[in-house]
User: What shape does this take?
Amino acid sequence: MELLKRLTEEHGPSGDEGKIREIIKKEIKPYVDELYRDKFGNLVARKKGKGTSVLLAAHMDEIGVMVKSIDVDGKVYISPVGGIEPVVLLGEKVKIISGTGKTVFGILTCKEIQDGAELTALPAMEDVYADVGMCAKEVKKAGIAPGNYAYLMKGYMEMADGNVVSGKALDDRIGCYILLELAKKLKNSNADVYYVFTVQEEIGLYGAKTSLYSIDPEYAIVVDVTESDDGRLHEGHGKCLGHGPVIVYKDAEMITNKCINDWLIKAAKKLKIEVQPDVGNFGTTDALSVSVSKGGIPCTAVGVPVRNIHSTTSVANKQDIKDAIKIIYEVLKNPPKVCL
Assistant: This one.
């Protein structure tokens, strides 16, 4: 999965998805008839067809951090971009591109770690800063200022004899990867397929909200990741690595379309692929914004289970990714009309 590696290792926090957009643009261009960036930054690709009009969506952005302030000692304090806990940031390497174009590297830390003191409580986000090895005067001279992104630098790694991947931004570069693979497979389908790669999902599902103004699909499937809860198998919970893609029935904000869910389940049974149901109480996806756009769009979400979600050390199973592609393709190679 060299393409997934490239997608995860490139930087693209919310509001700064340009480099991810360029990778996707080059990869999808041979398989679509239309390709454009909308005013908000979403990348929209269309494979024209005489059949059912379908939207597939995945978000390009990742969680991250931004420079908030610089103190008199040269400590570079940060603000979270998206839902990231301060504890997962400690010890992370960051790269800051200053306003003058200078690249500055640093380590995220807090006072207790710097002083070698005992941590008696988990640090708050306002306690975490980047140590860039400079005094305040040097930091200013380097051009570092509030508003600069501090890019998290964790790389991609394969584990378990190459069957499992780990790295930053699996949320949701996995979804982007799945859409790109589907574009190759659906090139000769009679479906009229829109591939929408959205921006700013992690801070409010904003890209998905604006993208539907220029598109009118009959239904939609959003592809994202979902937190794996392997450790709760004994309680009868699902969403485990290696047990197949997840079909979302409900999350904290929406109930998905039963008709589309039934197609996906039927396709999985035909292909003898295990799928996992998700009836969740927390979080949501771009499917929420899509489903309530315009006059309402029938929509569901397909997820790939990921451990350590919203961290730089997320873990996913390759087979779950491959199976998600197979199931969605099985439905869309001859796309049915949606039932309401």
